[in-house]
Amino acid sequence: MAAVGAAALAALVIYTVFMRWVVGQTPSWAEELPRLVLIWTALLGSVTCTHRCSHLNAGLLPLIVRSTDVRRTIGRATDIVLLVMLLVLAKAGWDLTLLTMSMTTTALKMPVGFLYLSVPVGCVGMALMQLQHVLSPGDSQ
């Protein structure tokens, strides 16, 4: 889904640039729709990154802590903290979604809450992946 979103974003931007510079008419949705696609794509893609543990990290822990048992414990604690933080963020995102559902965007005339809905959806997806990491018997990270 994230790859489809990235392709759609690229197509939207190319179309907008073409319309603006070649035709001389910018579509009314040129600002809102690519932003909406970008936000949803980023948050849905982050679920896959969380599942694969491919998110950016400094990789300094193995240089500082030599013991694999201590690294495993720190990784497990990190997974638990991330799980809690993602659930808190999902709740806040859901509250914001409900609060803004009655507002509409300027160009697309769609509920603003649909944009903010990406936060709880993405965070719940990432939280499920973190829960899988916490419950897995092997190495955490």
UniProtKB/TrEMBL annotation:
InterPro entries this protein is in?
A: DctQ, TRAP_DctQ
Q: How does the entry describe its membrane topology?
A: Multi-pass membrane protein
GO process annotations (BP):
C4-dicarboxylate transport
A GO cellular component annotation here is: plasma membrane
Which of UniProt's keywords are assigned here?
A: Cell inner membrane, Cell membrane, Membrane, Transmembrane, Transmembrane helix, Transport
Q: Which residues form the Tripartite ATP-independent periplasmic transporters DctQ component domain?
A: 9-135
GO-annotated molecular function: transmembrane transporter activity
Q: Which residues form a coiled coil?
A: none
Query: What function does the entry list?
Result: Part of the tripartite ATP-independent periplasmic (TRAP) transport system.
Subunit structure, as described in the record: The complex comprises the extracytoplasmic solute receptor protein and the two transmembrane proteins.
Q: What is this protein called?
A: TRAP transporter small permease protein
Q: What organism does this protein naturally occur in?
A: Vreelandella boliviensis LC1
The organism's lineage is:
Bacteria, Pseudomonadati, Pseudomonadota, Gammaproteobacteria, Oceanospirillales
